[in-house]
Amino acid sequence: MTAALRLARRLALTALLLPGLALAHGHLKSAEPAPDSTSAAPKQLSLSFSEGIEASMSQVQLQRLDGQAGTAITTGKVISGRDERTLDVPLEAPLEPGRYQVKWRVLAKDGHKTQGDYRFTVQ
Ligand SMILES: [Cu+2]
Questions:
Q1: Residues with CB under 5 A from ligand 1 (ion)
Q2: Which UniProt keywords apply (predicted)?
Q3: Can you tell me whether residue 92 is helix, strand or coil?
Q4: How far is the CA of 98 from the centre of ligand 1 (A)?
Q5: How many angstroms separate the Cα of 22 from the Cα of each of 12, 78, 100, 104, 120?
Q6: How far is the CA of 78 from the centre of ligand 1 (A)?
Q7: What is the chain's alpha carbon radius of gyration, rounded to the nearest angstrom?
Q8: Is 100 exposed, middle or buried (0-12, 13-18, 19+ CB in 10 A)?
Q9: Largest CA distance in the chain
Q10: Please, are residues 76 and 90 in contact by the beta-carbon 8 Å criterion?
Q11: What would the pLDDT profile of 17-61 be if each residue is shown by its tens digit?
């Protein structure tokens, strides 16, 4: 076995033994309103991640999925929530009943960027 192959095997084994390390990025763990939920109109969006997040370097976009589909909803600035893993997004006006999509792009405090999206319904 060549030295390079031995090193590659060792790195692969390390990645297997330390899945937490390999996957340690800012993943969405929960949100309010919750993904795929139906609820009364929220006053704000709250997104909780698996890691500390830089609020000032993160974006959350909200858009309508029905009615005037694709209409972007103007929100307040993304701010830190109850802890460093949570982002809050104040809403400027109550959301009308309908289906919404949240798209998020965040910078974790470890310097990694992640993104994703989810949907919820307002009654
Ligand atoms: Cu990371």
A1: 24-25, 110, 112
A2: Copper, Metal-binding, Periplasm, Signal
A3: coil
A4: 34
A5: 11, 27, 32, 21, 30
A6: 20
A7: 19
A8: buried
A9: 65
A10: yes
A11: 554 455 568 999 999 999 999 999 999 999 999 999 999 999 999
74-79: which pairs have CB atoms within 8 A and are 24 or more residues apart?
Answer: 75/45, 76/44, 79/55
The Cα–Cα gap between 37 and 10 comes to 44
Cα of 32 vs centre of ligand 1, distance in Å, is 23
Span from the CA of 24 to the centroid of ligand 1 (angstroms): 4
pLDDT in tens, 82-98: 999 999 999 999 999 99
For the chain, which residues make up each domain, given as ranges? 26-122
The domain made up of 26-122 is a member of CATH 2.60.40.1220 = yes
Tell how far the Cα of 50 is from the centroid of ligand 1, in angstroms: 10
What is the residue whose two structure tokens read 């910078």?
Answer: 107
Ligand 1 geometric centre to CA of 41 (Å): 33
